[in-house]
Amino acid sequence: MTDDRDAPPSVRLLGNTLATPQTGMPTYIRHHLDPYVTHGLNAIKPEHLTLLALRLGLSWDPYKSPRLGVSAGESLVQATTQDVAKYLDLIELLLGAHKRAVNEDGADETLPTAIDTILAVGGSAYAVSPDGTRLVFRNDPTVAAAAEAAVSVDDDAAQEIAIAYNYAFGREPNGQNAWAAAIRAVESALIPILWPDPSRRGKQTISSARNRLRDEPAKWRVNHPTITLDALVAMLSALAYEPRRHGGDERPEATVRDGAAAVHLAVTLVSWLRAGIFAAAD
Fold first, then answer.
1. What is the pLDDT of residues 123-140, one digit of tens each?
2. N or C: which end of the chain has fewer CB within 10 A?
């Protein structure tokens, strides 16, 4: 969310503060977003645009729908003018397609940043997710920055953190799925440290990792003046206590708030493990 101090004086004096998140898609934000969304869509092959339209439930054909002088991308944007939800869906589909194009074809990487900047300055309740593939509800800047750093590494943990974050803070949040992905992220980072031999990792989980640390403390060290092995074990225990993780568990499913807390915990743990704070004893 944009700080009120960033708002122009005219906005502050009128009391129309940008510190209040704008839900939906106000016209003034869309006015500035449309050119970037159009540009991004025009970089996509027509047959792929057709697939986007199908996923949105739009009767739209890139070879027939555009009027004279209107690009395919602009025509598709115009097709969502009366439906805010479809416009937001279109942006999400564009972001996902753009991410794949960056990975496969080396496409321009600036589109997600441009969209996020417009949303932020306009006071939107939405932001581009840390992995650049989704729209999520805008988070505390410190939390978002930590998540962005966590997903910037090319490993399995980063992919799971991205999934977890999008479930926790996305437009259709799911606390249970966020918590499950958060666990997988920590497992991806921790299990290879505890079991360097890949052949011994197959059945290991966050619980077995926690148990090994707790039961064999002499085998491990923590390279930090204030973080202790007991603290690490406690954090793993909290994360491993995912409701409905095992059959027969009758606890209620995790709430969105529960899932978000699990993601915060996983981001911290993965960051610690990557930094080498925890290792096998010499």
1. 999 999 999 999 999 999
2. C
